[in-house]
Specification:
- The protein has one domain.
- Helix content is about 75%, strand content about 0%.
- The model has no long low-confidence stretch (mean pLDDT about 90).
- Belongs to the MreD family.
C-alpha cells in the first residue's frame, strides 16, 4: 500500500493534469496534430503512468487500478464510448513493469520501453477499432499516418519531461 507521503496525493493530481494537458494540446493545436492524412495522438496520461513505474521505487502505487481508471476516462472523454483503452492502459503498465525488470532503467532504456508502449497502444487500439468497424484504414495506413507521428510526438514529450518528472517524483517521495 502507498505510504502516507506527498506522492499519495501528488500522483493522482499529476495524472489528472497530464489527462487535462492531453485535451488542451489537442484543442490548442488541431491543425498540427490532426491534419489529413496524419493524426497524432497524445498519450501524456500513459507517460505519467510509465514514469510512475520508473520512479516509484519501493512505494507500491496501485498502477493497474489507476491505469484502468485513466483508460476509462480516456475512452469516455476522447471517444465518447467505453472502449479499448480501459483494457490497453493496464496491459501497457504490466508490459512496462516486465521491461523494468529486464532492463536497467535509465533515460535511454526508458525511451525504448516507452517506444514499445506507444506502439502497443496504437496497434491494440487499431485492431480494437477494426473489430467494431470504427476504422477502415489498412494496417499500413495506420503505421504511416498515425503510428509514426504519434511516436514522434510522444517520444519528444518523453525527452522533454523525463528529468522534470523524475525530480518531481523524488521530491514527492520525501
Amino acid at each position: 500500500m502507498l505510504r502516507v507521503t506527498k506522492l499519495r496525493y501528488g500522483f493522482p493530481i499529476g495524472l489528472f493534469l497530464f489527462f487535462y494537458f492531453d485535451g488542451v494540446l489537442g484543442a490548442a493545436f488541431p491543425r498540427q496534430l490532426f491534419s489529413v492524412p496524419y493524426a497524432m495522438s497524445s498519450y501524456l496520461v500513459v507517460l505519467w503512468l510509465v514514469f510512475a513505474v520508473f520512479f516509484e521505487d519501493n512505494l507500491q502505487i496501485p498502477l493497474g487500478i489507476w491505469a484502468a481508471i485513466a483508460g476509462g476516462l480516456f475512452d469516455v472523454y476522447y471517444t465518447g464510448i467505453w472502449g479499448i483503452f480501459v483494457f490497453v492502459f493496464p496491459i501497457v503498465i504490466a508490459l512496462t513493469k516486465a521491461c523494468y525488470k529486464a532492463f536497467p532503467i535509465n533515460f535511454l532504456s526508458g525511451l525504448l520501453v516507452y517506444f514499445i508502449d506507444i506502439t502497443v497502444i496504437c496497434t491494440l487500439s487499431y485492431f480494437g477499432n477494426l473489430v467494431v468497424h470504427m476504422t477502415s484504414a489498412s494496417f499500413t495506413d495506420m503505421m504511416v499516418d498515425s503510428l509514426a507521428p504519434t511516436l514522434a510526438y510522444n517520444l519528444a514529450a518523453y525527452v522533454i519531461l523525463y528529468f522534470p518528472v523524475q525530480w518531481l517524483f523524488n521530491r514527492l517521495k520525501n
